[in-house]
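Before the break, one more example. Copy the sequence into your notebook; we will annotate it together after we see the structure.
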Amino acid sequence: MECSEVLCAAPTAVRPILVLGIGNLLLRDEGVGVHVAQALNGTHACLPPEVDVVDGATAGFGLVEILAGRRKVIVIDAVRAPAEAGSIVRLTIDDLVAADTAPLSLHEAGLLEALAAARRLGIAPQEIVILGVRPDIVDYGLELSPLVAALVPRIVELVLEELGVAAAVEVP
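Here is what the structure looks like once it is written out:
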């Protein structure tokens, strides 16, 4: 079976692992998660059949259904981390809910609310990892800044490492 057949096949059941790209494509680097999800769907490497890659855009509470019943979720999003533009940080959900820190994810409220709702419904993921990117430009526009665009192949590699998949892929 071709890789594209695996990625494009309609799922018959919820796959246990989700790679979720979050962001707004209209605000340049704020859409980095969506760009990474698109790159993962366009790679020439086969992702394991238990992995779904979803463009979560700015779904908010719509994420509850997407998150439901997953064993592991890897979220890619722009973050307000105390780091230089273009930095990539690995966070857990505990990092996002720490009481003494300012919000890190630019979508933290939507993601945290969706996760809280999933917990109340008994369908929350067992493990959540956030690969956050400190944006360079958050302003109207469709393209990533050159700094963040150059990071997309590295973020794809980091996602594949989280999945335990060899990172020898071509990113469009």
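The mean pLDDT is 84. The radius of gyration is 15 Å. Try to locate both features in your own notes.
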